[in-house]
Amino acid sequence: MTWSGKLAAGLGLAGLIVLFGLLGPLLTGDPATIRDIGLTPPGDGHLLGTTITGQDVLAQLTHATRGSLWIGVLVGVMATVLSGVFGIVGAYAGGVVDEAFSLFSNVMLVIPGLPLVIVVAGFVPADQRGTWTISLVLAITGWAAAARVLRAQTLSLRNRDYVAAARVSGEKTWRVICMEILPNLLPILASQFVFAVVLAILSEAGLSFLGLGAADSSTLGTMLYYAQNGFALQREAWWWFVPPGLIIALFGGALALVNFSIDEIINPALRDRVRRRRDVVATTPVAAPVDEDVVLTVSDLNVVYQGATPVHAVKNVSLTLRRGEILGLAGESGCGKTTLAYAINRLHRPPAEVTSGSVVLDGVDVLALGPEELRAFRWVRLSMVFQGAMNSLNPVTPIRAQLQDVLRTHRPSMSTSDREARCAEVLRLVGVDPARLGSYPHELSGGMRQRVMIAMALLLEPQVMIMDEPTTALDVLVQREILNEIKRLRDELRFAVVFITHDLPLLLELSDRIAVMRGGEVVEYATAEEMYLRPQHPYTRQLLASFPSLTGERGALIR
Amino acid sequence: MTTLEVRDLTRTFHRHRAVDGVSFTLTAGRTVALVGESGSGKSTIARMIARLIRPTSGEITLTGQGGEPVARRAYRDHVQMIFQDPFASLNPFHTVEHHLARPLLLHGRSRAEVPHLLERVSLTPDLAGRRPHELSGGQRQRVAIARALAPGAKVIIADEPVSMLDVSIRLGVLKLLDRLQREEDLAVLYITHDLATARHFSDEVLVMHRGRIVERGPGDDVLLRPQDPYTRQLAAAAPDPEARFRQAFRQGGQP
Amino acid sequence: MGYHLRKVAFYLVALWAAVTLNFVIPRLLPGNPVDILMAKLQQRGGSVDPAARQAYETLLGTGGRDSFAQEYLAYLGNLLRGDLGVSVSAFPAKVTDVIGDSLPWTIVLVGLATLISFVLGVGLGALVGWKRGTWLDSLVPATTMLSAVPYFWLALILVALLSSGLGWFPLNGGYDVVLDPGWSPEFLGSALYHGTLPALTIVLSSVGGWLLGMRNMMVSAMSEDYVLTARAKGLTGSRVMVRYAARNAVLPSVAGFAISLGFVVSGSIVTEQVFSYPGIGSKLLQAVQNNDYALMQGIFLVITIAVLGANLVVDLLYGLIDARTRDRSTVS
């Protein structure tokens, strides 16, 4: 089901129950009327049968639903307001206020709610235990978890540039909170409200069932209390006991559906995926490479993002890579360069799909490999270095485990000491002290992390290394060091590189050949020298002109 | 002439000096480029001038057109900021109209000026009804520039205004800023890590390293003939295809 | 301040807050608990000497005779000596003895049920997230529906179906009453047999929360670059799932343990009542029904301390499984 489907189903079901509670009591007569037809099974006259004293179960159910919903809404509103005050205001104010509010919320969170409610209810004499008292107590014990969520979200929103921009333009604090932050918190507030309502209805049912509920109300919980004390189940009067619980469960389930859809609105990654169609495309038979030196041949590769309107992300791309060569892949965001890189290693995920073409790496038809062959092929023949090295390394395990994982999987016969030695060796190759093996990623600088990634890519001495914007997130000086390192290693170890970036001048300096991509197509494919001296395609010229030269004539560019 | 003077500005975070005794002056009709790597303190300076964070010590003084000091309350009529990421600096919940009308109203102007503002940044007035996600990166950054102009500001702090944009539209946005600076006699602080655009789009370049200004002067002096070892390193690290093909370039002629 | 020290300090503050709450509640709410207790005590033939009255007043308030500060100090003093007063409903037993008898039952029941529920929910959640787009997806709405069912209602339906209907489990109680409580195999077997259905209720009702949370985090983790890198490295599917995706996805579940534990403890009180289980939850309700205020407060305090203790242990474990927390300087 899509998120809108879930929302519709959830709201529809919840709406029906609300209508049942609102309109039902008007149609079903007095729930308290006692008749001498106790425990009549459902049938004519009494659609849901009668209780032990002959009261109509349906009439009781409508009134009880109304009572439970009322308490749910009451508590929901109060708890949401409390969590908003402590979560949003605290986080926005920051400093001591935030520390105090957050400490208070966390303390309230770890003190178990229901025992506290029971104790409070136990001290209040039954005749003073009204709906408002119970609602207030439930709200006071139930807001803390939501406050914590709202605080975290507000802290992240507070640091957004648009909040800073509103402050710079002179907006008052209350207006920044109400107009800039609050609207973006709406989905979370809605989801916390829904959660508070469900929790309140459940807690109230529990309290009433224990005989500690509000004295002046009839809710689904009190109905269950009477059913239990009338031994409904022992007398097999399921029509008395089952419906109230079912209404609670259905209402909770409906609101859970609503929350699912809110989750999916907030986090699109959670939405249902198109199911995987076929995994491997039929490839054209491969002719033996003419040139002995060629390690990677991509021919007529097409990648399509399937969907309502399929997007042709890579169109008829053909490339060849020779031993020890650096091939530059240049283009702007959305041009298909990353999709192409992933497709070469078949890392693309649905809805992306290779629709035709072939990838041959040193005689291996990559697109024809079975799942296990593909797994064994990866990293051994072709390794990758991704853009954000912070995100490419697993944050919760040390570097050693992540390097050794590769050897453990691809060289199972290697001894422990050999593994350790090899890991230290590759770190030394990229200029990182092997003592760093025990470090966690967050303990390393950005440049150091990217070096570790390159070391990892070298572990199995692959023929080809794909580097996707490996230096974009780095500062100029670190970028220069990493580029020099890549050139040196390539000269020493003779692997070939596909280097992807938007920085055309960098490629002109670094690569042997360059392919310029736009709209999924390679618009120009030439040696770096050719491209620098005689760019053919207008887009290549436009890209070149976008990078003013540091040393070129000043002012020629603009004035 | 509107002038913003920064004197001995210092900001410490947890005993770390992010900005350490920085002084410079922004004057109407001039662009000053502040160059440095991430963590050098350049964004902290921007945020202090925009009054988003307080300096630990030092002064920021603003004098108006006639040389009179500007009152604290009126500061934001004169000084505005353009943020790095146009995807983050516009609220996804609000329309372009809202983003421009609010600063207009806050500074005693009329909502009716929105179409004119959009035209000043070379956008068509029909964009006013759109929300940020319906705009391209370049369009968003132009809206952000229009927002900075809305209060009638004479001092514009541009914190890496093009580094999040696609390369082919960067120059367009920088040219727009440059045109506005000249036509409207603005004082611009252009913060960037890109030495080449700093040189081409500024009258003065300040190089920052670890919170301090290590070198300053006209762009050609600082970047073509750097004196400070750090500036020299920076200038040498930028990709330079020319160096590789200089030989071929001389023989081959026009690129 | 180090991570561990900060955590311990936080729980000390929380403990102080709970103790103070316990002190304040009877003094702020309407009614005159001391008089009610004295009347009850008299009915049971207990002594009505001034000493007994004074003991209750220390606990519940003197009605304005002593200053708030004096009462508070006296109350704290009693707590430090481990004196929680005398129970009226189990007169002349001390509150601490009543709690001591029932606490182990609850700790074993709730502890085991929570552990099973956590392991099951997190395990299934990881699998459901990893195998997205298969039949496993239907586990999410199914278990979520179960969490929306009131604990006691589910418990009673289970009793009606499995105990009364099929006779598979005993109707109620914590052990076969013909046996003497002790470490004999018969007794342990009987306790296990009696505890199965209550534990099943708790597991069924709480597993959905873990499952959903883990599944959502798993889906998020799978779009992270480190998982992509792990796949590119040619690691086996199970290794990528466990070492890379699940290892990271489980962190929020552990961090959110406090919230979930609160729900489980609340639910188990009601469950114990349904099964007449000899645990602390049933005792709490007996205390409420008999206006046994001293026992009520004592039990609340003990439940809170147990929950705080469990949370502290989990938080300290969290520091072990996520190295980053140890280096961070944010507060709790």
CATH architecture term of the largest domain in chain A: Orthogonal Bundle
Could you please say which CATH topology of chain B applies here? Rossmann fold
The separation of the N and C termini of chain B measures 43 Å
Enter the CATH topology name of the largest domain in chain A. Answer: MetI-like fold
The general outline of chain A is elongated
CATH class of chain B: Alpha Beta
Total number of β-strand segments of chain B? Answer: 9
Q: Estimate percent helicity of chain B.
A: 25-40%
Return Rg of chain A in Å: 33 Å
Largest sheet composition of chain B: 6 strands, mixed
Strand neighbour order, sheet with most strands of chain B:
5-6-7-3-8-9
Mean pLDDT figure of chain A: 85
Reading the helices and strands of chain B in chain order gives EEEHEHEHHHEHEHEEHHH
Q: How big a fraction of the residues of chain A is strand? A: 5-15%
The CATH homologous superfamily of chain B is termed P-loop containing nucleotide triphosphate hydrolases
- Find the CATH superfamily of the largest domain in chain A: MetI-like
